[in-house]
Amino acid sequence: MASHLLLPRKPRKKLLKATAMLDKQAHCASMEADLEAHLKSSFPTNPPLVVTEPMRHLVSCTPKSMAPVLCLAACELVGGRRDRAMDAACAIQLMHAAKCVHGRLIGLDSSPLTYSPAIELLTGDGVFPLGFEIIARNRELDPEIGVRVVMEMTEALGGMVEGQLGRVEGGMEEEWVWERTEGRLCACAAACGALVGGGGEEVVESVRRCGMYVGMMRGSVGLERAENLRSRALELLEAFHEEQRAAMLSLMDMCFHYGFAS
Amino acid sequence: MASHLLLPRKPRKKLLKATAMLDKQAHCASMEADLEAHLKSSFPTNPPLVVTEPMRHLVSCTPKSMAPVLCLAACELVGGRRDRAMDAACAIQLMHAAKCVHGRLIGLDSSPLTYSPAIELLTGDGVFPLGFEIIARNRELDPEIGVRVVMEMTEALGGMVEGQLGRVEGGMEEEWVWERTEGRLCACAAACGALVGGGGEEVVESVRRCGMYVGMMRGSVGLERAENLRSRALELLEAFHEEQRAAMLSLMDMCFHYGFAS
Ligand SMILES: [Mg+2]
């Protein structure tokens, strides 16, 4: 079962043993499948179709980010069950989707619009708060963690806007933009996964840094930089139990060897 | 001291005694002044000027909604101190401002753009989450109330998007649109004010209805409908202490007699 997250790109280094790689692919694919099912069930059912249909459609055809799966892996890393992070991961995916919809409207992505610009703009506006709603209505989540997750997500959104503005105005390094968009989203996703998984302050900060390294690993950074980021992430991971690291390691290896669809 | 919220429109009925009206004006103006000062101090100081300057500018020139002041009045109505509701009122004002910025981009308002469309779109995207951030970072607020307020705000944003979509697609009654935009924002603002002021479930629902009536009172509804809404609001207000009703009554009377700028 191939992971939708993965593009058939040229691997950076010679492949791991084929069987080990298939295990990692399967691990990532299973997280993705869980996430997609949860996302489908998280849409509001009350609003009329005029709002929810474009929302569903635009979210479903958004290019994937690795941040939501990273959120699940971060939760497992700190010893939490994957399903505890499902809402936060969905919220991250919705933020990413809304950003992509609005980015396309202002020419940061050349794919054609599905609806009129007005509908695409309002659909993005409808999708952004849906992530916060999913967090806020989760009654199994300690409210203190809930407001922390909301704050993390607003900070990541601030980074996204800054990164997109940098692209609009031009003159910024690609890595500057990447750090503020995918990098900070991945850091946020990892921190939120660790928070809902029950990690304490120090653990959350360590997992956040690990998320940032993994988020920065792909893209335009080149092999040497990727190897440096990977070894820094691996160093952070040493503090965690071996059996809890599996998802994060799978994700990191897949990301390192293949890169992710942006 | 005239209230900025008030347009010099033709009063619906003969004026109250001039002195009584001046008191009510002063009451509204004092709430507004508190709110504006708090809003100025609530902007993030970390992001670079490229993000915060358009945010400040666009928020400051947004047409006023009565919802933020209603949030303060609702807090006083349930016996809370006005300053407890200041963050929620600011968050409501920011949501309203972001809606107006995006509405102008898609032609729902004919005033000219200040910046390029891309910057106005991203500025709106930056302002929407700021409201949630203000709620989430308030450490004096019980987190359980914090997530309730976040949920209320996401629901109001859903209504806004629905109302704006109705305007874009056309064919909807003006009151249908008004209910989903200003009406639901006012209901949300009142409910949030009651929540942070310490109101229980039943009180919150009663204050929410009162907010909806006040929100629906102005605009295109005509005198008979306005009188009907006013008497329903007054009926709800009877359950509250007389000295706690003053702000809400001032707001309602000003709204009834003059209407508000939208
Ligand atoms: Mg708090």
Automatic annotation (TrEMBL), chains A, B:
The record's annotation in SUPFAM superfamilies points to:
Terpenoid synthases (SSF48576)
Q: Keywords in UniProt for this one? A: Magnesium, Metal-binding
Task: Tell me its cofactors.
Answer: Mg(2+)
Keyword Cell membrane recorded: no
Signal peptide feature range = none
MF GO annotations: metal ion binding; prenyltransferase activity
The protein here is known as: Uncharacterized protein
Tell me what organism the protein belongs to.
Dioscorea zingiberensis
- Give the organism's phylogenetic lineage: Eukaryota, Viridiplantae, Streptophyta, Embryophyta, Tracheophyta
